[in-house]
Amino acid sequence: MKASQFLITTLKEAPADAEVVSHRLMTRAGMIRKLGAGIYNYMPMGLRVIRKVERIVREEMNRAGAVELTMPVVQPAEFWQESGRFEKMGPELMRVKDRHDRDFVVQPTSEEVVTDIARQELRSYKQLPKNLYQIQTKFRDERRPRFGLMRGREFIMKDAYSFDRDEASAKRSYEVMAQAYRRIFDRFGLKYRAVAADSGAIGGDLSEEFQVIAATGEDAIVYCPGSDYAANLEKAEALAPQGPRPAPANPLTRTPTPGKSTCADVAQFLGVPLATTVKSIVLATDTLDDAGAVKASKVWLLLLRGDHDMNEVKVGKVPGLDQGWRFATPPEIESHFGCRPGYLGPIGLKRPVELVVDREVAVMADWVCGGNEADVHLTGVNWGRDLPEPTRVADIRNIVEGDASPDGQGVLAIERGIEIGHVFYLGTKYSRSMAATFLDEDGKPKHFEMGCYGIGITRLPAAAIEQNHDERGIIWPDAIAPFTVVVCPIGMDRSPEVKAAADNLYSQLLEQGVDVILDDRGERPGAMFADWELIGVPHRITLGDRGVKAGQAEYQHRRDSAATAVPLAEVAAHVKARLTA
Amino acid sequence: MKASQFLITTLKEAPADAEVVSHRLMTRAGMIRKLGAGIYNYMPMGLRVIRKVERIVREEMNRAGAVELTMPVVQPAEFWQESGRFEKMGPELMRVKDRHDRDFVVQPTSEEVVTDIARQELRSYKQLPKNLYQIQTKFRDERRPRFGLMRGREFIMKDAYSFDRDEASAKRSYEVMAQAYRRIFDRFGLKYRAVAADSGAIGGDLSEEFQVIAATGEDAIVYCPGSDYAANLEKAEALAPQGPRPAPANPLTRTPTPGKSTCADVAQFLGVPLATTVKSIVLATDTLDDAGAVKASKVWLLLLRGDHDMNEVKVGKVPGLDQGWRFATPPEIESHFGCRPGYLGPIGLKRPVELVVDREVAVMADWVCGGNEADVHLTGVNWGRDLPEPTRVADIRNIVEGDASPDGQGVLAIERGIEIGHVFYLGTKYSRSMAATFLDEDGKPKHFEMGCYGIGITRLPAAAIEQNHDERGIIWPDAIAPFTVVVCPIGMDRSPEVKAAADNLYSQLLEQGVDVILDDRGERPGAMFADWELIGVPHRITLGDRGVKAGQAEYQHRRDSAATAVPLAEVAAHVKARLTA
């Protein structure tokens, strides 16, 4: 490509609403242009990156035996009514009516349509397993679209769906995808982690997220530097502490703590470590009658160490809380504890509560908690002596750095990531709701076992930038750079030697299949270099009049601090030897 | 590709609603599946064809210097309000509201958004000319979607838009695209014509349609077998007849024609050629007041030869009718002609009308027309003698076979076509309505001169099938076949020799870059051949046990009536020599 024939639209300034670096740099580099909230034009420079991402994904999906098709962007609502999502999903599902007032949705994903395809086309176990995927425009009407392509409303997603005879086969299909995702992410040239994830509301029990590591990521990733263990914060298990509980050393003591209603304040006031305090969190669950009205409510007390945070996903798995819970109301707290929040504890309750004790709290001795009396805490609290041994002990807290790794291979660390891919074992959630069956070997209809597998195609470039940039701009990995090499001739219009050398080098690289752009715009060196550093082309060759006449060119990788002189005759080979894609 | 890993979903029967052969065959071949009215899944077999079409279009667009980008499917209505199309377009424009009740459209084309991009990014004449294109999902909420991909609601279109400094440059950009379209259509391997088209309501005066020739096509194409001349029926000019008008030979005679109200009936009744009769068509035009109410109306009489049809596009260009016209109402006809339709004519009117005479009628002598009296016609009618010489003579009829070619190179023929591409000089229609300007060399802002250029990516496979099929199924040109070659082993499970030969041949062809599929499904020969003939793969190699053991294979092109024996060792070279893409 010659720059004069392309559309290069770099900007000095980022738009005021660009909060994150990828949004700022993609806009300044002319890769995207905002058309509306969360809706972007993919400009020529950005589209080249997106197409390279698509190509890698497509090649690896095909290699893994998946078959590509395309499902419509605008889908009849009837399929979504069948699965129940037309009613269940909130306003993020964009609903639209056609000229005949029939309901449609603009697809956010395609579980329903692909399940319809399966129930029509996959009639026999002989056709299984099958994995169908598409790379297609999606729409989610986000309440607060932001961060450019990171959280847009219209985006491109690769969504794949596997169909299997039984659970064992479905798990093999899942594994094939998880492997394919590793190959895809390896090829992108990004630092990433595959982390165990909670399968959440969508059902099933196997789920991994592919997270691109970036300090600015929205997600916390828990990993073990000494092993392969990685999980997101929701999922990462806090092991039960090793060894026995220490014996009680101190008496139970009623201690005035005037105005000290947080564990941190109490610990400081008493001069004890925060880790010796215990916080009380009060939840409630409701039983509903047939009309959906609250028939009865139960109050729950959760005990966590003062320096730990509650993990809502884990709490949602505790038996009794797994059908939904809420925080208790002030009257509920008052009626059970006889006290306002800030001084609550498990001893001296007015009415009994369901007690759930974090694994860590269950092995503490001589701890501090609220006294169920304003401005009073208890110190020297001990299980078995001051209150009964806990019967309901569970992992209900977030991991913190330094916790033991669940695989026993050391201690855990935490870093930030951006979720770009997700592999998910779905089970029969959709095949049951949509009555999608095949005839098994025994001649009987069975529900498909399904998995679903997404990659955020347009999100990936943004994540790559969050991970790879400096103060001058983007630094693309070779595999997804809009161009791999840029040839920058200086004074091409004045020096026939520079022009000849540039044209020759450009043709040479093109012939060798290198994705090269020749900057023939006639910009001054400063502006030209600034453009390419902003755009982030990883390899640059500069040709100047004096150098060319002396048979020299200059090579500089985007991460190099200075250029290297290379004989002109060898520069094509020099750059080719440095390409990683 | 191995068939067992792909998704082959052929059907014995076409759906009841499939009216045209391409819809029937694409459905039976498992290329598309209907999801809703005019909305289709592109199944794996069909998507391969679509992707090949896309690739050819993309390569030639790039070669022609156009630059690819992607504009959103869901577009904010504000741009469409700016151009006026949000209000002007009918319900075929799909409008949708987001969660904040803001208006959006699902793009049917992208003139507005690309014009917005141009006014932001193309600031200087130095950046011109520029041609921006996308290959993207479009939606048109057709009143009556039908014919499968031929007239769907959701479809993929390549839409390109050129931006130029002035009209001369815009016409060069137009010409570059018209040439690129010829290369694209040549590469598809289809019989097509580029025909002059009317530029219609969109404005401008240069327009060509690319029509794939097919007997089932919706459009009539007028062409000259002795020259390059081709135009669609709306556009093709009917020349004024050569030579002088014959002298009157017969007297004007009032002739009773009881119950004969059509030219054909009258001609038969009188025993004269239909070409000696003249039909009267009565139109009306309205003048509106400021409130849009009809202030005054004018009645027009159009005279055409009895065997000719009125051309509405040409009528719409007659001065006085070019701001819109309608057919006259029965009361209007009665009050001007004193007679009901069927016996109308230009002689003996009750009130004057505006007369428009077709070129052909203007040179007729001794003609027949209605007598403005029920059951009466006039014969021996002559200009100058029985009524004044016509003052308003125009080409207002459709061409018929045998008319003289406008280029003087013989007579015209008519064939049917399917419109697949359109190149259009737009002028400043959009740049003016959206105030899109650049700074010209003189430092002054000027409106862009624009052109737009479409290709119906998903319509093309349907058109290709309308042109290329037989009673057994589709016959793809090599360039856009889902697979170019199919290897059909017979009894692969029973004969290790067949299996080895098939695997070997498959690998050999793959290595040579041939797009080959190996049918390893284990189907019986009859069902296997029927599938591939239905799907329309152009080249087939069959391997049987006896043949393989004798070192023989069989090659058959989809158009051949029988297979040819080819030595097994040479069959790869044999088939390769026959590939055209």
From TrEMBL, chains A, B:
Gene3D superfamilies: Anticodon-binding domain, Bira Bifunctional Protein, Domain 2, YbaK/aminoacyl-tRNA synthetase-associated domain
SUPFAM superfamilies from the UniProt entry: Class II aaRS ABD-related, Class II aaRS and biotin synthetases, YbaK/ProRS associated domain
GO annotation, cellular component aspect: cytosol
Domain of life, source organism: Bacteria
Keyword Phosphoprotein attached: no
Compartments where found: Cytoplasm
GO molecular-function terms, A-Z: aminoacyl-tRNA deacylase activity; ATP binding; proline-tRNA ligase activity
Top-level enzyme category: ligase
Keywords: Aminoacyl-tRNA synthetase, ATP-binding, Cytoplasm, Ligase, Nucleotide-binding, Protein biosynthesis
Major location category of this protein: cytoplasm
Classification via CDD domains: ProRS-INS, ProRS_anticodon_short, ProRS_core_prok
Gene Ontology biological-process entries: prolyl-tRNA aminoacylation
Classification via InterPro entries: aa-tRNA-synt_IIb, aa-tRNA-synth_II, aa-tRNA-synth_II/BPL/LPL, Anticodon-bd, Anticodon-bd_dom_sf, Pro-tRNA-ligase_IIa, Pro-tRNA-synth_IIa_bac-type, Pro-tRNA-Synthase_IIa_type1
Aminoacyl-transfer RNA synthetases class-II family profile domain ranges (all copies): 38-477
The enzyme's E.C. designation: 6.1.1.15
Pfam families, per the entry: HGTP_anticodon, tRNA-synt_2b, tRNA_edit
Catalytic activity: tRNA(Pro) + L-proline + ATP = L-prolyl-tRNA(Pro) + AMP + diphosphate
Subunit details: Homodimer.
Family, per entry: Belongs to the class-II aminoacyl-tRNA synthetase family. ProS type 1 subfamily.
Role description: Catalyzes the attachment of proline to tRNA(Pro) in a two-step reaction: proline is first activated by ATP to form Pro-AMP and then transferred to the acceptor end of tRNA(Pro). As ProRS can inadvertently accommodate and process non-cognate amino acids such as alanine and cysteine, to avoid such errors it has two additional distinct editing activities against alanine. One activity is designated as 'pretransfer' editing and involves the tRNA(Pro)-independent hydrolysis of activated Ala-AMP.
PANTHER family: MITOCHONDRIAL RIBOSOME PROTEIN L39/PROLYL-TRNA LIGASE FAMILY MEMBER, PROLINE--TRNA LIGASE
Domain notes: Consists of three domains: the N-terminal catalytic domain, the editing domain and the C-terminal anticodon-binding domain.
Protein name: Proline--tRNA ligase
